[in-house]
Specification:
2 domains, 3-stranded antiparallel sheet
Length: 232
C-alpha cells in the first residue's frame, strides 16, 4: 500500500508546524530532536508534505546560511516568492532532517522513531510523577532534550513556559491545553510567548513526543520543585 493511500485513510491533523518550521526542516536547519518531531507529524499530514515539496523546489541554496537554532523568521510565502529569482543549483547542500518514511515498524514504532527505540512497550520507561512516564531519546545542546511521554487520562503536566522552542507531536490518545485539543498527528508548537498546562484527555493514555531546544520554565511552585526530577 502506498504512503499517500495510507495517509489519506487517516484523520487529518488540525494543528500543524508553522511556515518557519517547515522551511527550517526543508533546509536541514533544525536540530535532531525538532527534526524528528516534524517528521512524525509529516507521517499523518498530506497538506504539510505538499508544503514541504514546495519548499524543496526552492532549493537548499537559498537557506544555506540558516543557523541551526533559533529558527530564522522566514515564512513559506517569503521563500516561495524568491523562487523566480533563484539561480540554478546543481545540487542542494547536505541536510540534517529525518525523512518520514513508513507508518510503523513491526513493533508498532513509527518509522522516524525506529533508530531510537525497538518497541514502545519494551522501551525503558521511567516514572516521573504519578501518571507520567518518560523515555529520554536525545539530550541536546543548551539544555534541550527529546522525550517520549506517556500520560494517563486526566493527568496534567505542570504549568510552564519556554526558554526556547517546544514541539509536541501526539502519537496516540490526546491532550488539551489553553490553546485547544491535540489528537494523533497534531503538533503543538510553543515558544517563549507560550504558557500552558497540558492535560491528557479521558480515554486512552496520551503518548507523545516532546522535543525542546532549551529547558522548560515551570511557573508553579510544584513544577519548580519537581523540575530537577522531571528533566524537562
Amino acid at each position: 500500500m502506498s504512503d499517500s493511500h495510507t495517509l489519506s485513510s487517516l484523520p487529518r491533523p488540525n494543528h500543524h508546524p508553522s511556515d518557519a518550521l517547515l522551511v527550517g526542516y526543508g533546509a536541514g536547519c533544525l536540530c535532531e530532536g525538532l527534526s524528528l518531531a516534524v517528521a512524525l507529524h509529516l507521517l499523518h499530514c498530506l497538506d504539510c508534505r505538499a508544503a514541504l515539496a514546495a519548499v524543496d523546489a526552492v532549493g537548499g541554496a537559498l537557506l544555506e546560511e540558516c543557523p541551526p537554532d533559533p529558527l530564522e523568521r522566514l515564512t513559506l510565502a517569503d521563500t516561495l516568492a524568491r523562487l523566480d529569482g533563484a539561480p540554478a543549483v546543481a545540487e542542494a547542500p547536505p541536510r540534517r532532517r529525518r525523512e518520514p518514511e513508513g507508518q510503523a515498524g513491526e513493533a508498532g514504532v513509527p518509522g522516524p522513531l525506529k533508530p531510537y527505540i525497538a518497541s514502545l512497550e519494551g522501551a525503558p520507561w521511567r516514572r516521573l510523577a504519578p501518571g507520567v512516564e518518560r523515555v529520554r531519546l536525545l539530550r541536546g545542546a543548551r539544555g534541550g532534550a527529546t522525550h517520549l511521554l506517556r500520560v494517563t487520562p486526566g493527568t496534567a503536566v505542570p504549568h510552564h513556559g519556554h526558554a526556547g522552542l517546544e514541539l509536541t507531536v501526539v502519537l496516540s490518545g490526546s491532550f488539551t491545553d489553553e490553546r485547544g485539543r491535540y489528537a494523533a498527528g497534531d503538533m503543538a508548537e510553543a515558544d517563549g510567548d507560550t504558557r500552558h498546562r497540558p492535560v491528557a484527555d479521558p480515554g486512552a493514555p496520551c503518548l507523545c513526543l516532546l522535543a525542546t531546544n532549551a529547558p522548560l520554565r515551570f511557573t508553579g511552585l510544584l513544577g519548580r520543585l519537581m523540575r530537577p526530577f522531571l528533566g524537562l
